[in-house]
Write a structure and sequence with these properties.
The complex is a heterodimer of chains A (about 475) and B (about 290). In chain A, helix 4 packs antiparallel against helix 5 (about 80-85), helix 5 (about 80-85) crosses helix 8 (about 120-135) and helix 13 crosses helix 14. Chain A has three domains: about 20-135, Alpha-helical ferredoxin (Fumarate Reductase Iron-sulfur Protein, Chain B, domain 2); about 150-245 and about 400-465, FAD/NAD(P)-binding domain; about 245-400, FAD/NAD(P)-binding domain, CATH 3.50.50. Chain A has helices at about 20-25, 40-45, 55-60, 65-75, 80-85, 90-100, 105-110, 120-135, 155-170, 185-190, 195-210, 225-230, 260-270, 295-305, 330-335, 405-410, 440-445, 450-465; strands at about 150-155, 170-175, 215, 235-240, 245, 260, 290, 310-315, 340, 345-350, 360-370, 375-380, 385-390, 395, 400, 435. Chain A has 18 helices and 16 strands. By secondary structure, chain B is an alpha/beta fold. Chain B has two domains: about 15-100, Translation factors (Elongation Factor Tu (Ef-tu), domain 3), CATH 2.40.30; about 110-265, Nucleotide-binding domain of ferredoxin-NADP reductase (FNR) module (Rossmann fold, 3-Layer(aba) Sandwich). In chain B, the strands form four sheets. Chain B has a seven-stranded mixed sheet with strand order 11-10-9-8-12-13-16, with helices on both faces. Chain B has a four-stranded antiparallel sheet with strand order 1-2-6-5. In chain B, strands 4-3-7 form a three-stranded antiparallel sheet. Classes of the chains: A alpha/beta (about 475), B alpha/beta (about 290). Chains A and B meet through strand 5 and helix 13 of A and helix 1, strand 7, helix 8 and helix 9 of B.
């Protein structure tokens, strides 16, 4: 197979991959997007033209060596294909699933306009799943121990990227996680039907094999402070994410049945409440569910709720579909699964019964006015258009900001007006010497891929700093 | 002995488990990082097993020397029944902490501690810390009956005065903790601060009893909690008309500013689920016993 000749067949139509049937999938938490078969993968990889200037690789936030891994995959050298990806990104099974490739590598593919781009994301996922399922995962080699110790705060995508890069360079890395499961937002936030738990666990297991130490149940800022950590570690990376829910500020938000998306998703995903009473954490949604928001978290919340089997799930968004920040594919998935969208609609007030349980939501219709600071047209209430939607539960998914605990307990750590840690984009350097930060705790709610990109950049800066010989 | 607080060796093992009453047990757990960092008022989150729920419980005691923490659990729902069926040598799946904001320890003068039921266990470290800070301690301990009255001896050892009340009169005076409080106020006792931990209705009435006397009063709130790290907002409580997260801002709050009625409603959110879960567990348990 090593000498299998490469015959680019770009004119074969792009294979977008199969999806679980919408009628079936709204009843289960199994993965919606299904992986390529071996045959699919080989046919799709044969479409790659192996362009010399590698537009795909350059468009990737973590610079995955796309043409090279696709070529190895085509030659059925699966282990080698995976190792090629590991050279710049240790998490292909995650990225292959949650990265919006249509904005990065696939947008840059020269085949895009004529035949459709090579399905790079699907191929990346196939490679990672294949080596995992065939026990062929070979962790990348690590440099000899340098004797330096680095602490990563949080175990989400950003911290994992830092841990991977610094361990490869020979540093001793300890990852601290406040919850009982590693992965941060990959475990508590993103539902299993988009990212199965086994994928996250196996990526963490690989880092463990490389010698990264993982400590769960330790909340930095409460269990132990950054200042205390500084005594035991040479450098610290803060990748604690954006875990603070934003309330709507509407009357009645304290009624039983009103959840932040963080609570709802954590119950369902992390605590596996969808298996209750086989698991011990319950959920309460009743027969009628309302979700407020227009981002990916709102889509995840609505789609999780739908899978719990209520009579209906209604999503309220104050602008139109065009302004929705959620990925187009996720909106389509949600619509296919039967979620009702009420655009140009905002909740005004939540009303409950005598037991303090939510009963109905008073809403108002909106219309789009002048563009606001974000450049999107500002929604303006339409006078006299109030109406009611009956609801037993409501999920508020209108944004997250960083948990303030670390900022409050670390003297001198500069923070912006949104509570985000101030850090240099190219290095992750904060206002405190020896302390770096990146991902959502700096960006305030961005994407998995940008978090990983920040992690890689900070790892480089931390390594250079450690090897410079100047003590923090 | 010096314990490596970053080691995972032997974590969460129950070094010693003792039953205090038919439903209440004391667990001494190996968790050196928590033991090294704990202060009065801190809590931990326990998870008995994989798939288990996260149970917040205030620390009763800790020993940095032994690397251990002590919690006292009353078996009420499935998880707590399961936890109290553990034996010495068993391990928890997870113990996270220390979490929450510790109580500010200072010299008030005379501090009254009002504990109800298993809340007495959580009152103990706070009363102890105030005693060590030079305060005079009056402890008012309430329980439904003698069997549910715990830590009487320990509280006596750190208090200048102890008053016990039970609903049925099987120990101490028959009556409520608030009756004892009223008697103390009537007798002219000067009380500079009150700390109360117990059932929500009890804490509500402790606050109402101390309000006319303007005694600063603090209650340890126990809302439904999920992550315990300020992430979900499920434990939000209304303090002085503003939402606060019990997990990171508390659990101890100004009792006179606390909306106890709302807390009571929110705490009842999963009562049906809790009942179902316990019934299933007990059915399984009995079936297995029946097979022998």
């Amino acid at each position: 197979m090593d000498n299998k000749p490469k015959k680019p067949t770009p004119s074969i139509k792009q294979n977008h991959g199969r999806h679980q049937d919408p009628v079936e999938r709204r009843k289960n938490f199994d993965e919606v997007a299904q992986g390529f078969t071996l045959e699919d993968a080989l046919t799709e990889s044969a479409r790659c033209l192996n362009c010399k200037n590698k537009p795909c690789e350059n468009a990737c936030p973590v610079n995955v060596k796309v043409p090279q891994f696709v070529d190895l995959l085509y030659k059925e050298q699966f282990g080698e294909a995976a190792s090629k990806i590991y050279e710049t990104s240790l998490f292909p099974a995650i990225c292959g699933r949650v990265c919006p490739q249509e904005k990065y590598c696939e947008a840059a593919c020269v085949l895009k306009d004529k035949f459709g781009p090579v399905s790079i994301g699907r191929l990346e996922r196939f490679t990672a799943d294949y080596v995992r399922e065939h026990n062929m995962v070979t962790p990348p080699p690590c440099a000899p121990d340098t004797g330096f110790k680095v602490a990563c705060v949080g175990s989400g995508p950003s911290s994992l990227a830092v841990a991977a890069e610094l361990r490869k360079l020979g540093h001793a890395v300890t990852v601290f996680e406040a919850l009982h499961e590693f992965g941060g937002v990959l475990s508590y936030g993103i539902p299993t039907f988009r990212l199965p738990r086994v994928v996250v666990r196996s990526e963490v297991a690989m880092l463990r094999k490389m010698g990264v130490r993982f400590l769960k149940n330790v909340m930095i800022g409460k269990s132990i402070t950054i200042d205390e950590l500084k005594k035991d570690f040479d450098m610290i990376y803060i990748g604690s994410g954006a875990g603070l829910p934003s309330p709507m500020g509407a009357p009645g938000e304290d009624l039983v049945g009103v959840y932040s998306s963080n609570e709802f998703l954590t119950r369902v995903n992390l605590m596996e409440a969808f298996k209750f009473p086989a698991t011990d954490t319950p959920y309460y949604i009743g027969r009628k569910v309302v979700v407020v928001g227009g981002g990916n978290t709102a889509m995840d919340s609505a789609r999780c709720a739908q899978r719990l089997g209520p009579d209906n799930v209604t999503l309220l968004y104050r602008r139109t579909r065009e302004e929705m920040p959620a990925r187009g594919e996720e909106v389509e998935n949600a619509m296919e699964e039967g979620i009702k969208f009420e655009f140009l609609t905002a909740p005004l007030e939540l009303e409950g019964d005598e037991k303090g349980r939510l009963k109905r939501v008073k809403c108002i219709r909106m219309q789009l006015g002048e563009p606001d600071a974000s450049g999107r047209r500002k929604p303006v209430p339409v006078k006299g258009s109030e109406f009611y939607i009956e609801a037993d539960s409501l999920v508020v998914a209108i944004g997250q900001s960083p948990n303030p605990v670390i900022q409050q307990t670390t003297k001198g750590l500069a923070v912006d007006k949104h509570g985000c840690i101030t850090a240099e984009e190219t290095t992750g350097k904060t206002s405190l010497d020896g302390i770096y930060a990146g991902g959502d705790v700096v960006r305030g709610g961005a994407t998995v891929l940008l978090a990983m990109k920040d992690g890689k950049a900070a790892a480089k800066a931390i390594h250079e700093r450690l090897m410079s010989g100047v003590k923090a | 002995m010096k314990h490596d607080i970053y080691s995972t060796e032997g974590l969460y093992k129950i070094v010693e488990k003792t039953d205090i009453s038919s439903t209440i047990s004391r667990h001494v757990i190996y968790a050196p990082l928590i033991a090294a960092k704990a202060k009065a008022g801190h809590f931990v989150i326990l998870r008995a097993k994989e798939g288990g729920e996260r149970i917040p419980v205030t620390l009763v005691d800790w020993s940095p020397e032994n690397g251990t923490i002590t919690v006292i659990i009353q078996a009420i729902g499935k998880s707590t029944v399961q936890i109290n069926s553990f034996k010495t040598g068993d391990s928890f799946s997870d113990v996270a902490g220390p979490l929450g904001t510790p109580v500010e320890i200072k010299k008030w003068g005379t501090v009254m501690g009002v504990g109800g039921g298993v809340g007495i266990a959580e009152l103990y470290p706070i009363a102890k810390a105030y005693r060590e800070a030079g305060n005079r301690i009056i402890s008012v301990l309430g329980a439904r009956n003698k069997d549910l009255l715990i830590l009487e001896k320990e509280m006596e050892s750190i208090s200048d005065k102890v008053i016990v009340t039970t609903d049925d009169g099987s120990a101490g005076k028959k009556g409520l903790v608030t009756d004892a409080m009223k008697e103390l106020y009537a007798a002219g006792e000067k009380i500079d601060a009150i700390f109360t931990i117990g059932p929500i209705p009890m804490m509500k009435f402790v606050a109402l009893t101390s309000l006319p006397h303007k005694t600063p009063t603090f209650a340890s709130l126990n809302p439904v909690m999920l992550d315990g790290t300020g992430m979900c907002g499920g434990c939000r409580v209304e303090i002085g008309g503003k939402p606060k997260f019990a997990c990171v801002d508390g659990p101890m709050f100004d009792a006179h500013q606390t909306n106890f009625d709302q807390l009571m409603k929110r705490t009842a959110a999963y009562r049906e689920h809790e009942k179902q879960s316990l019934e299933n567990y007990q059915k399984d348990h009995q079936c297995r016993i029946g097979l022998h």
